[in-house]
Structure formats: C-alpha cells, structure tokens
Design a protein that fits this description.
The complex is a heterodimer. By secondary structure, chain A is of the alpha/beta class. Chain A is built from 9 helices and 10 strands. The chains are: A alpha/beta, B mainly beta. At the A-B interface, α2, β6 and α3 of A face α2 and α3 of B. Bound molecules: adenosine-5'-triphosphate and magnesium ion (MG).
Chain lengths: 243, 305
C-alpha cells in the first residue's frame, strides 16, 4: 500500500536520508533505530511535512510525491507528532472535531479521549496550550490520530512520556485502529512491547534501512546482540550497537 | 426595528429579541427601546447625549444591555454613558456598537463609558464592536472606558473588535482601590488598510489591588495596530499584562509596554510577543485535513476567542 522509491533528504550539508527503498504492506509495521538515525524525518516525508530531495512515494498505487499534507490526510493518512504542537486559544474539542470530521458524533469524540485514558469532562474544554503536561499532550495527539482513523496512521513515538499503567490502553488503541477501522499502522517506537506486536520491523541506521524483516526475527537478533555481552539497550539509549 | 437593525443587534449583543432585565437600545442617535427594573434605573442625561444607569446596592444576577446601532450613512455621534453601581452588586453589562454603512459618508460613534463601581461589587462587562457595509463611507469608532473600582470591587471586561471598523482609537483607564481587581481581555482584528490604536492605562492605587490584562491582536492585509499598556503600581499590588499579536500579509503591530512602580511592594509584569502564525501549527491542522487557508483561519479564530 505504501512504497518509497530512492528517497533521499539532504539538509545542512548532511545526508539525513540516503536512498531509501521500502515496500510496506503489513498491517502493523514499526520503525526503530538509534536517535538521529532519521526515523522522524522519514515519517514526515511520508506525510508530506518534509519534501524529500529526491525520490518518489506511491500510496495505494497513486504517486503522492507532490501532494500537500492536507491532500494526503484526505486520502486517509493521519500523523501523530513526536512533539505535539501547542496552540493558543484552540481547545481539545476544537481539534478533535476537525479530526473526526462532520460525521463525528460527540459520543465518538468523547470515546477517543476515554480510549487514551483522559476524562472528556476534564479535558474537552482545555486549551491546547502549555498548561497541558507532556503526557497529556501525547495522549491527545493519539486521540486525534485515532479520531481520523483512515488507511494509514503514522505515529512518532506515541508511548514516549506515557506512564506504564496506561500502556495497555495504548496497545488497545492500535488494535482498534487495526481491527475496527481496518487501517494500517506505521509506528516509530523504541518499546519492546510495541516492537513485539508488530508484523514487521524496519531498523534505521544513519539514514539507511539497515534491516527490514518480520518482527520475531529482528527481535531475536536484538536479544542475541544483548546476550553477546553488549549492554547497550539497542535502539533505546540512542547508542548504535555494533556488538 | 428592521431586518438590518435586528441582524446588527445579533452581531453586537447576541440578541434575537428584546433582552430581559434593563436595557436601552440606541439606533441612529435616538433611544429606540428602554426598560428599567426595580434595581436598575436608566435615565437620559439632561444634556441629551447619553444615559445614566443606576444600580441599587445589593443588585444581584441582573443584567443591563445597552447596544448601539448606526445604519444611516453619515451619522456621527458622541455619547456619554455613566454607570453607578452600588455596593455588593453582581451584575452583567453588555454594550456594543454596530455600524452598517452602505453610503458614501463616514459614520462615527464615539462612546464614553464611565463606571463607578461600589464596595465589593462585581461587574462583568462585555463590549463588541462590529462594522459592515459596501459603501465608500468609513465606519469609525472611538470608545473610551473609564473605570473606578472601590474597595474590594471587581471588573471583568471582555472587549473586542472583530471586523469592519476602518479606524479606531480605544482608550481604557482604570483606577483601583484597596483589594480591587481588574480583569481585561481585549481582542482586535484588523484587515485591509484599517488602523487601530489602543491605550490601556491602569493605576493600582490600593493595597491588595490586582490587574490582569490580556490583549490579543491580529493584523492582516496592510492594517496597523498600536497597543500601549501602561500600568502604575502605587501600593502593595500585583499587575500583569500580556500583549500577544499575530501579523499576517503586510500587517504592522506596535506593542508598547510601560510599567511604573512607586511602591516597593508593587509587583508588575509585562509580556509582549509578536509573530506570524507558527508554521508547525498550520502543518498540524493540515494533517487533520484542512488546507492552508482553513488552517490559518482556525488558528486565528481560536486565538481571538
Ligand atoms: N532540517 C534539518 N536540518 C539539519 N539537520 C536536520 C534537519 N532535520 C533533521 N536533522 C538531523 O537529521 C538527523 C535525523 O533526525 P530525526 O529527527 O529524523 O531523527 P530520529 O531518528 O527521529 O531521532 P530520535 O530517536 O531522537 O527521535 C538528526 O541528526 C537531526 O539533527
Ligand atoms: Mg524522532
């Protein structure tokens, strides 16, 4: 459903993405890799937030390389930012309403908040400004992506900053997207429990696809490398492991 | 009242019909409808250029609407409205002015509102200014608001000018006694070649007095805004002002903060920021399906809400 052909991104005299070729068809694919390896950049290229220096993006057979962000959104892509954007004046309900579209009922809007563990009564009328905590912002960001549903949901480290207790609910949000709305999920994560439930894992390193395979295989390799006496938490602490 | 006047009334006072409580509706220079209540007395001034409104001590949960409408091209007026609010009141005052000018002559409303707010009284004041019309005649408004707050009194002001006024010079002055509070939210949107000047002067004269002023402006087109917020702390007091503006196109905004303290226990803060809409905010809304123009509009709508 998504194909990247020879995607490169060059900025500040650096090759941030280097000739990336990927075909993604599985329902749940995770991207992992060290800090600064280009994961967020790649996801933004897919959504159209960053224009690649070269290469082509095909979504459901359509060349979307030149489509602006909103047209990709209307083709069924949604995006949850690693660092959610804050607004002065706009409220949680305002953005959720836009996300859910004209058909979204207020019961549905409330259910998206409940699904991320936020009580609608307390949050619907909160301004999306800097009075919301980091974790609250992340949850609202996920609720918005869930409200859009659609064919391809892109998440950039949704679990970061979310307390462990809510982790199971987060997984349920993904399962719901996968099962109920029949959408595909592409998610950047460093979390073992998310990597485990993925169908496939893309391991990005220095702007290139280092590994792309079934989750189980990559997880095995991960564990092997750990057992091999290297105590770097592969992909977690941002240290690229050569061990 | 004709359809046009009814629509203007809805724009400036959110009224579909005559309001409950006290009211005075002024249309093209004449009082079109008026109602006093047992606690709120509205009288014409002897000079004939406005009204005096008296609130009895202890008036609670009552409202007073005093909208002004101008639909005649070339109509110019200067109106004085004085409000005398007794002690221990809790009331809402809704003012507002709408000018519809489809003619070739300038229409102008200069309103001077003076509030005398008695001990421990609370006043919520809402004022909306709005202009429309296809004529070449300008729509001009120069509101002056003067507020005297006695001990323990509170004034919560919500003032806005959202569209259609060519030129405005808005003056707000407040003097606060002991433990008095002034909260002010002022919003201005200008476009095309409109200009807006706002001068807000607050004197915190009483111990325990507090003011919180939030001014938000959006300047589009080639419009210009000039905002001056001037707070003097003359007692043990707290003053906070926030002046936040968005510029678009070729808009110009000048924000001038002025703080003066004459008492060591005065604590005054002024924050000012001017900038364009953050690109990441537009991007975020685009990921929700809005195009760039729709995203901008949504952001401004929220900012000026
Ligand atoms: N516009 C830019 N100009 C210069 N450098 C950039 C730009 N955008 C990204 N980079 C650099 O590109 C690299 C990849 O950034 P990216 O945000 O994609 O990393 P990431 O894999 O998501 O990292 P993390 O795990 O920390 O989120 C980083 O070194 C970053 O500093
Ligand atoms: Mg990242």
């Amino acid at each position: 459903m998504l194909e990247l052909q020879n995607i490169s991104f060059h900025a500040d005299d650096k090759d941030i993405l280097k000739d990336i070729n990927l075909k993604i068809d599985d329902k749940f694919v995770a991207i992992t890799g060290p800090n600064g390896s280009g994961k967020s950049t790649l996801l933004k290229v897919i959504m159209g937030i960053i224009t690649p220096t070269s290469g082509k993006i095909i979504f459901d057979g359509q060349d979307i390389t030149d489509l602006p962000v909103n047209e990709r959104a209307n083709l069924g892509m949604s995006f949850a930012f690693q660092q959610p954007v804050r607004f002065k004046g706009l409220k949680v309900i305002d953005l959720l309403k836009i996300a859910a579209g004209p058909e979204g009922t207020s019961a549905q809007i409330r259910s998206y908040l409940k699904a991320v563990g936020l009580c609608p009564m307390d949050y619907l009328n909160r301004e999306i400004n800097d009075t919301l905590s980091g974790g609250e912002m992340k949850r609202i960001e996920i609720a918005m992506a869930a409200a859009r549903g659609g064919k391809l949901s892109l998440f950039d480290e949704p679990e970061a900053g979310i307390d462990l207790w809510s982790f199971q609910s987060l997984i349920e949000v993904f399962e719901n997207l996968r099962n109920v709305t029949n959408g595909n999920i592409l998610i950047i994560s460093h979390q073992e429990r998310i990597l485990e439930i993925a169908d496939k894992i893309i391991y990005l390193k220095d702007g290139t696809v280092d590994r792309y395979d079934e989750s189980a295989k990559i997880m095995d390799e991960l564990n092997m490398r750990r057992k091999g006496g290297c105590d770097c938490a592969f992909g977690q602490k941002g240290v690229s492991c050569n061990g | 009242m004709d359809e046009l006047e009814k629509r203007m009334l809805k724009e400036v006072a959110e009224l579909d019909s005559l309001p409950v409580g006290a009211f005075n509706i002024r249309s093209n220079g004449a009082s079109e409808a008026r109602n006093s209540t047992a606690n709120i007395q509205i009288e014409s001034r002897e000079s004939g250029d406005g009204i005096n409104v008296y609130f009895k001590d202890g008036t609670k949960n009552e409202s007073c609407h005093i909208p002004v409408i101008i639909s005649k091209t070339g109509h110019k007026e200067c109106v004085y409205n004085d409000f005398f609010v007794g002690e221990d009141c809790d009331v809402v005052i809704v003012a507002g002015c709408g000018i519809s000018n489809c003619g070739g002559h300038d229409s102008q409303h200069d309103g001077i509102h003076t509030f005398h707010i008695g001990k421990n009284s609370k006043v919520k004041y809402v004022e909306k200014h709005y202009g429309e019309g296809t004529g070449t005649g300008k729509r001009l408004m120069n509101p002056t608001t003067v507020v005297y707050l006695e001990e323990g009194a509170t004034m919560d002001m919500d003032t806005s000018q959202i569209a259609g006024i060519n030129d405005t010079y808005r003056i707000t002055k407040a003097e606060l006694g002991p433990d008095a509070t002034l909260i002010m939210h002022d919003k201005i949107l200008t476009n095309f070649d409109q200009t807006a000047k706002a001068e807000i002067t607050v004197d915190l004269n009483g111990d325990g007095s507090v003011c919180d002023i939030v001014s938000r402006g959006v300047a589009k087109g080639e419009s210009e805004q000039d905002v001056i917020i001037d707070i003097s702390g003359n007692a043990q007091c707290k003053g906070h002002a926030e002046c936040d503006s968005i510029i678009m196109d070729k808009g110009v905004i000048v924000a001038t903060p002025k703080l003066k303290a004459t008492c060591v226990d005065a604590s005054l803060i002024h924050e000012a920021a001017i900038g364009k809409i953050a690109g990441e905010q537009i991007t975020k809304l685009m990921t929700l399906g809005l195009n760039e123009q729709e995203a901008e509009q949504k952001i401004i709508e929220g900012f000026l809400m």
